[in-house]
Design brief:
- The chain is of the alpha/beta class.
- It has a single domain, classed as Rossmann fold, CATH 3.40.50.
- Helices cover 27% and strands 22% of the residues.
- A seven-stranded mixed beta sheet has the order 2-5-1-6-7-9-8, sandwiched between helices. The chain has a two-stranded antiparallel ribbon with strand order 3-4.
- The protein is globular and about 50 Å long.
- It starts with 9 loop residues before the first strand and ends with a helix.
Length: 226
Amino acid sequence: MTSSMASPPLLGFVGASNSGKTTLVAAVVAELCRRGLALGVLKHHGHPEPLPLPAAEQGKDTTRHLMAGARRAALVHAGGVRLLTSDGGNLTPAELTQLYMADLDLVLVEGFKSAALDKIEVVAPGKEPLLPAGGRLLALARRGGTGVEAGLPVLDAGQPAAVAGFVLEHLGLAGAAPQAGAAPRVSLRVDGQELDLNPFVARLLEQTLRGLVAPPLPSLDEIAGL
């Protein structure tokens, strides 16, 4: 079944092993969550062998269901939901997002260096970038990095708030981070067909419309006369 819900924007972080990708992505996620966005993360397991299950998972009911042929098996408990799936290996980040994360504001992708999405390459100190400049490579991130390299801006990987700001600026979300809480019910019709909106877009439209129809603010002279 294909969901009709609009997918959130995606942005990738790529780089060689031990370049600091996961450290930077985790820090950027924390920063964006602090600003009120609902975040998802997709991480690519880049090795050809099947993803190993931790010893604690082996023989458990959910794993047995998956091994028996189930395409997806979910374990639901007080701490959250863990989803095991056997059908995601050939899906693109956009397809995975549509399936599992369509209700979020933004999805960051770690790995998937060949995927067709905008990305930032994280480069370890003293190392050279893996990917050529141009295409959908937006910037490089190095610890202590500044300036321009190979025609690309260099972000400081030690400053996740600045990297988060770059992400929001590129996606056109700067200065418009949503407030925590449920999204308002906002609908959009195009040629008579209602389109589903993800929570961030719904909140942004709601705030914009409220600003357009709200009464004008009093002038300074009016305030002084109160």
